[in-house]
Structures are given as structure tokens and as C-alpha cells.
Model the fold of this input.
Amino acid sequence: MGNAPGRSIWNGSISFGLVVVPVKLYTATDTHDVAFRQVHREDGGRVQFRRFCSADGQEVAFSDIAKGYEAPDGTITMLTDTDMAELPLATAKTIEVQQFVNPAKIDPMLRGSKSYYMLPGNPAGNGAYALMVEALRRSGLSGIAKVALRQREALALVREMDGTLVLDLLLWPDEVREAPKPDAVPALSEALIGQAQALINALTSDFQPLDYTDHYAEAVTALVAAKTGGVPTVAPATPAAGGPPADLADMLKASVDAAKARRAPKVPKTRTPADDAPVPADEPSSA
Done:
């Protein structure tokens, strides 16, 4: 589906009970983000950013930048890479599974946007790795664990996917903002709710990720190619403004009909004797 994982970004082990499995983590996902450069509008020159020290006004090289923790009173405490590496965290090199859960019962809001493949860290751990994969596969459960990764400790979900262990980072509960409540909700008739459910049923099918395409990235790539080649771009047609808003029930019915029409199997055209009749010599063939 995408590019193969590159170099491992973390070496350690995963444990459940007294079973310890040496593993390496590999980034599992890429993005379609289109990279833009900030440039000077007048001449297209790239805009560069320089780092300056607020104390002496001098430019600071990246190699001279350190971490500083600012207290509420403004006092800065310097922290070195050694300080960070020696934090007393058991999760720095071990992913310890705390419990096993039904993944379907985890609030999707807690799901992070980063996933990692976990592969055996060395041949000696292949047996334990295969054991954990098979146990998760048969149980249908996933493990909840903590891991220190990229200078922060995170909750994580350990799951099995096609014979490979996967680590999905989760958000901490206090990282999820409280949902705002909508304004007054109007009363809904049972008939209208039934039509909405009919539309949901008409649009229900198995999710096939490959059926979907990132049209934004495609459009930007085509735009760059067109401008580079001097080809004028064509704007997509804008739907004509209609009259007053349609009735909600009418829109639902039309949506259901359209969804059913899209999913209806194509009926082959029935041949008639006329279709098989020979073409007269003095008439052009339609072939």
C-alpha cells in the first residue's frame, strides 16, 4: 500500500507477565502532505529563518541550542541530552503491557495519529514474538501499555495485524478536550429518523481503503505541472445556485434513491433478432 519501513527508530523490549520480547520499532505510516516553501513574492527567493538569543542579540547555531525548562517565575533550568537520557523511566527501554482490552471499546478520540510496526529485535526472541502474535490473534484482544518515545511518555495500544505486532500511540485522557454541546436541538419525527436510517443502510458496505484517493495532493501536483508547462488550469464547475432549501425529507428520499441506483447491479442489454440481422451491402456498418 505504501513504502516499506526504513530504519528502526527505537530498540527495546515488550513484556507481558514474565515474557520479554526484544523488539525494534519502525514507522508504519506516511502522509500525503504537500510540502510548500515560503518564498519572497517579488523574486521567488526562499525565506530563511535565523535563531537569535534574546539576551545578547547574537545568532545562535543549532548545535548551541539546549533545552530549558521555564518555571512560572521565569527562571530557566538547563537540561542536557544526558539529563533527558537518564530520566528514571522504566518505559524508556521496555513497553510493559498493563492489561488486555477489547479494542472496539476504546474511544476513537483517544486514538493518536502515529503507528509503529514492532519486529523481533534479535533471532533469540523470535519464539516469544511469534507466541505473542498468535495469542493476540486468537484472543481478539489488544494490550494497553506505556512507552517513552520521542522525549515523551505515551499510552499505547499493542495489537496484532497480519502476523505483525503494531504499536498505536494513544492520547492521555486529559489531552482530549471536552465536547461542545450543540444549541437547541429540534424535535425529530420518527418518519424522518427512519429515512435517515434508510440512507445509512443504503450506503453501508465493507470499508476498502484502496477505493479512496487523496484528490488534494493530485490536484496540487497537476497544478504545479500545468504552471511549469505553461498550460492554463481549468477550474472545476461550480454548482449553480438553486432555489430555496429543499425539504429535509425530500433530500433524504432522493439520497436513498441515488444510493440504491449506484449499488444496483448493471443489467446487460437484451439482444433482439434485429441485433443479429446482417447489415445490407449498401448501408455502412456501425462496427
Notes: The domain at 10-29+86-174 is CATH 2.40.290.10 (Ku70; Chain: A; Domain 2). The chain has a mean pLDDT of 83. Residues 28 and 116 are 5 Å apart (CA to CA).
